[in-house]
Amino acid sequence: MKQYDIKNIRTIAVMGHHGSGKTSFMESVLYVTGAKEKKGSVEAGTTTSDFLTEEKSHETSMSTSLIPVEYNGYKFNFLDTPGNKELANEDRQALSVVKGAVLVIDGSKGIDINTEQVLEDLSERNIPTIIYVNKMDKENVKFEGLIDKLHEMIGNKAIPFLLPIINDGDFRGYINLIDMNIHVLENGKVVTKPIPAELSDRAEGPREHIVESVAMTSEELLDKHFGGEELSYEEICNGLRQGVLSGDLKPVVIGSAIKDIGVRDLLDMIAKFMPAPNDLKPVEGKHPETGEVIKRMTTNDEPFSAYVFKTIVDPFIGVMNFVKLFSGTLSSGQKVYVPNTKETVKIGSISFLRGKEQLDVSELQAGDIGVISKLDGVSTGFTLSDIKEPIIYNGPKVHTPTIYIAVKPINKKDEDRISSALHKLRLEDPSFEFKRNRETVQLLIGGQGMNHIKYTLEKLKNLYGVEVETLDQKIVYRETIKKKVEVEGRHKKQSGGSGQFGVVKIIFEPVNPNEHDFLFEEQIHGGSVPRGYFPAVEKGLSDIFQKGTLAGFPVIGIKATLIDGAYHAVDSNEISFKLAAGLAYKNAVEGAKPTLLEPIMKLEIIARDEYVGDVMGDINKRRGHVLGMEPLVNGKQKIIAEVPEAEIISYAIDLNAMTQGTGTFQREFVRYDEVPDQLQGKIIQQYTEE
To answer: Distance between CA atoms of 158 and 202, rounded to whole angstroms?
Structure first.
């Protein structure tokens, strides 16, 4: 693949909900541009985008694929995204490096709630967008109703550039309102013809709408249009481009990816109307040391800088980093600076990647996308920059997991391998998390939903041969006391020769468990306990607090004050006072009213207005309480609540069902609170029986 001038490069995210036909659209793009002689099939598992074993088995995209193609002197870098909200980190990373997007809609199903969310996201980010209504050849397509829905959502920005031609209920082609030609399917091929007279009247009104929209982009065109002068084809195209770049126009095109209808016109529109890498505003970063804001123009003349927006681990090649060159050029063998690690690295091989096919290149130009192999210590979210002109780019926020499950290798031989395999999967997907809970001795897997976790575990098996069984996550409780007590601990042991003797009198009292795990003080007068034994008393208490008396959870929120004791000149030693301190706490437990504490999580829930009541009612049922609400755009609310962690183990699943798949949330630990009395017995029984 040859190098292209920056003005002829287009980097486009292909968005849309699962089932809209994104992957089939990409197969059509590859076919009509001559990159493939034969189209692949989703059902047969032969598509370029979906090459992972998991993608083939589920017939759905699970990872963003890079699909570069050449067309009429242009290079298009398509980023085919998954279209699953649980894999939204893939979408966010893709959108961080593109200048435009194609939103694919299933014309037979219309605009569902998930498509609405994608369109809202693109509009909020102000990403120039072309809407491709796919599957127009299916039954029950209601194009006019779909356009009405788009107008409800984004107003008159949605403008049809193509009008369907329907004969006897069959989709035969379309009218191109820009060049006023028709494109019809004849003998399995799309043929371009001048618009016949019987269709001219139908096209006149929509065509005039486009011209008026173009005229609104400049005062000169506006005066010319309302002065009765006809706008030229070049003026219309230039005006449309300005409207698309500004976000004032979102062209709507139609077709059938399976039959290659509308795809060439869409590619032409991408070339004409979508931004080049150096269009719109410059990229903005910061100096890694001073924090000074730095703006870079996307040109070869600027100092080199690039952002890593995706990482994969190939079993044979190793780590492969997808980079977008924001400025300068990059060559094999070049030394670059990594501000994230403050290290200098040498660039190895560079390639274009089409699905899993590598196309080796020696150099990348500004604005282009490439893949760097074997760049150790670099992963998604990192910046590469010129050594003398460092810059760091902040990528999109990676959402923390919303659900955790425990896993255990089925084969014991895999216990040593699972950590390495999970680490590699984590490199590929920063929104996935794994951690070992030392208290429950569970290996926890965290993700954005059960499907996300399921896909990750399938990759674990398919790529690394590690198969696991899943278990429920155990909640990590704590223990504390509710009452102040004064007790004595006495340790005495005599077995011939030197014995052991230590006596302590300690006041135990509760303190805020969210501020202090354990406080130790001494108020010894008269030397009843020598100062040299104070650390032993503190260590004895610290040790026994590791495992409480109720259910074996760590004890927190206790202040212990050593006020008196006794020692023996011969038999006393550190171990004696350490054991005496432990006995003192055991003697204190009953009178101090021990109790369980549970982790409380803060939830930030995004829900549409119509679901807010249900969400808030559900929070109350989970022993939670709503702290506040914040109105958002597009009829949404942010609900801030606090809920015990034990009540939200499956909240990702429940919220999805409650909001018809539109609700999202983030969680974080805030504190420990006392478990209600009526629940403590059940919890204690559960954990003591294990």
So the answer is: 19
User: Does the domain made of 283-385 have the CATH classification 2.40.30.10?
Assistant: yes
Residue range 67-91: mean pLDDT, rounded:
92
Tokens of 477: 């409780």
Which pLDDT score is estimated for 355? Answer: 85
Q: Identify the pLDDT of residue 215.
A: 86
CB count in 10 Å sphere of residue 316: 4
Task: Indicate the DSSP class of residue 552.
Answer: S
Name the amino acid, one letter, at 219. E
Six-digit token string for 681 = 């017995």
396 Cβ contact list (under 8 Å, min separation 6): 89, 92, 93, 95, 96
pLDDT class of 84 with cuts at 50, 70, 90: confident
Contact criterion met (CB below 8 Å) for 201 and 180: no
**Are the beta carbons of 584 and 491 closer than 8 angstroms?**
no
Q: Tell me the sheet residues that pair with 324.
A: 307, 369
Please give the Cα distance from 480 to 493 (Å, whole number): 30
More confident of the two residues 584 and 58: 584
Predicted pLDDT at 220: 85
Residue that has been written with the tokens 């429920």 in this structure: 472
Dihedral class, residue 476 (left if φ above 0, else alpha if ψ from -120 to 50, else beta): beta
User: Distance (Å, rounded) from C-alpha 221 to C-alpha 230?
Assistant: 10
Give the helix/strand (H/E) hosting 190. strand 189-194
Ranges of H-type helices in 386-436: 418-428
Beta strands in 448-554 (DSSP E): 468-471, 478-481, 485-493, 500-510, 518-522
Q: Lowest mean pLDDT of 69-73, 171-175, 636-640, name the range.
A: 171-175
478-592: same fold as 403-471? no
139-156 pLDDT, tens per residue? 888 899 999 999 988 888
Distance CA 266, CA 161 (A): 10
Tell me the CATH class for 478-592. Answer: alpha beta
By the 8 A CB rule, do 675 and 683 touch? yes
CATH node for 403-471: 3.30.70.870
Determine whether domain 597-689 maps to CATH 3.40.50.720: no
Distances (CA, A) of 381 to 94, 302, 322, 401: 11, 21, 10, 17
Model pTM? 0.85
pLDDT of residue 115: 87
Q: How confident is the model at residue 440 (pLDDT cuts 50, 70, 90)?
A: confident
- By residue count, the chain amounts to 690
Delimit the domains of the chain by residue range: 6-177+248-273, 283-385, 403-471, 478-592, 597-689
SS3 at position 300: coil
Give the C-alpha separation, 199 to 203, whole Å.
6
Question: Which has the closest alpha carbon to 273: 236, 245, 234, 233?
Answer: 245
Q: What would be the CATH architecture of the domain defined by 6-177+248-273?
A: 3-Layer(aba) Sandwich (3.40)
